Amino acid sequence: MRNNRIGAYLFSFPSLFLTLVFGIYPIIWALRYMFFDYQGFGTPRFIGLDNFARVARDTEFWHSVWNTFIYAGGKLVITLPLSLILAVILNQKLRGRHLFRAIFFMPTIFSASVMAIVFYIVFNSYNGILNQYLMKLNIVSAPIDWLGASFAMLTTIIIAAWGAIGNYMLLFLAGLQSIPDDIYEAASLDGVNPVQRLWYITIPMLGPVLQMIIMLAITVSLKGYESIMVLTEGGPFGKTEVMYLYLYKLFFPLTTTGTSVQNIGYGSAVGFTTAVIVGLVTWIYFWVSKKLNSIY
Amino acid sequence: MTIRKILVRTPVWLLLLSMSVLLLFPIVVALLGSFKTNLELTTGATLFPAEWQFKNYVQAWNQADFSAFTFNSMFVAVFVTVGTLLVASMAAYAVDRVAFKGKKLFILLQSFTLFISIGAVVLRPQFDLMVSIGLQKSLWGVIIILISAHATAFFMVVGFFRGIPRELDEAALIDGCNFYSIFWRIILPLLRPALAVVALFTFRGAWNEYILPLVFSLTRPDLQTLPVGLASLRYGAGAAVENQLMLAGACISILPLLLVYIFANRSFMQVTAGSVKG
Hints:
heterodimer; A: 296 residues; two-stranded antiparallel sheet; 12 helices; 2 strands; 1% strand; globular; B: 278 residues; mainly alpha; MetI-like fold; 76% helix
């Protein structure tokens, strides 16, 4: 039993086979096609690094990279502090804390694309529900163009934060539970106020967990594009175009906006570049947070 | 002391209550709005419907094809859940209980697929693979690809395996069980509560999946799942936008998850919390 190798290979085979065929092969496929000129039909033509030269010159792509940083940065700035504060509050013996946890986590269980439809009806510029309320309460006199050029990015960030706060609250809660209570007891004897307690005890004590959660948050928010795709398709005028959405359009042109053409060779090169960008950002964060840790 | 306590407590409660309102607002809008008329939705600025329009659901179900979308979503989610549980728990059993050559490489491979993402690029070769075995015209293509992304479930099950003592395996071995019957008769029954949590997680993921079924149904509208069918209403060709149908459709997707969540929210949260403790 302990060394039933045949059994072990037999049992891990389905997993291995599926992972290799549908997980690894597509990556190798892309690594090959990024050196080819291929539109999805005809014979692929080898063109060396030409696709990457085109990526470097592609202002639309770099614009989407810039948008991705705004989108991810905005989402993190709203989500992380809020979810940490909520976690700290709900980690105390507070009446109804289980109910609040359940309420705050609820948005994370629903489909991002389905909720994007609901948010479309809420934020709709002309007759959306939010504008109806704002005008009824006399907060604004004319409807705000939430999905227009100047507000669309903010709207998508709010929607992303809405779906993420509960998730990070729970991750922080799990981390907080590993901080021993006696530290807080000692601090309260010394007359520490709640803000000092958060800044000087909780955040340093979270240490590696905090670092891991932030890293997860960065990679997840750089990759998100589902709800943007449903809500704005990257518009208006590319204002909400993030890099993974731009990439999607190179492979599956959206029929409604219809601006891009399928381009597999070039798309593979863009895919490789986006993966490198995400990896680079993660690595820089890791490096900086390590430096900061050693200063402490 | 009491005044100080009130000074600290009041902003805390205000924050908790206002966050609850903000986070619940879209869900409440969807639930209540799905019973309103289109006119009420676009001009009303009311919370509750003047008259409960149950016919929105009848209309969405019959005319807007949500019966087909729901069937497709259910079909995909059920088979992906069963498949993922089977594939992940079998692999986890081998990895946790047997020392075999290539085990480290196998684990490395699984974690690699978790961290590397080249986005929509993989969809094209995945689709081509399904074309080559003739599965692009059915939901089985979607199901198999979703099962292949089982790395998270695999690591979750491996974590749960740690809670089952190896002495049990050995005792069963002495009693005449072999490698396979230990898995079926000892491990799986003991893992049942843990697998229920993984099943919940997997079912939610498959039920909510948008991009993959979208790509498979681009030329086959009959394969649309709930998120895909719903999103297509947003850019519906020519037809007047019918908000009440979109909300009724959204609720058809939301309600099953919401019902399960009300009864099992601890299990939902256990998955997320567990990923930190690792």
